[in-house]
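JOB MANIFEST
job_type = single_chain_structure
chain_count = 1
residues = 112
[input]
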Amino acid sequence: MAYTLTKNEILKKGDFRGIKWAKQGETTHFLLLGNKNPHPIKRIAIGVRKKTGGAVMRNRMRRLIKEFFRLHKMLFADYYDSLIKVKKIPQQVRWKDMREELQQLLLNVKTR
């Protein structure tokens, strides 16, 4: 499996607004929503509200979630769009902590 992230795998605002998302799981900092898609690829959308923090922190969260998706695509379902919403930004944003929390979120969804 190639660890790449293509433009087709990232959903833009217009692509994921107006869709009925089903709640898949939730952790302290993240909310995972899902929706089936007709395409044979895994796609991701990221939502971070302005209330969660400044622009620098919001963009850092987006970058870290994209990196997590790039490295852990096997945890995401085929023919499925995933929307990860950031509920709140942790006091210290560390890759290790975020990765563990997102992995736990996705593994809980797989076991249902």
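[summary]
The chain is about 35% helix and 25% strand.
The radius of gyration is 13 Å.
exit_status = 0
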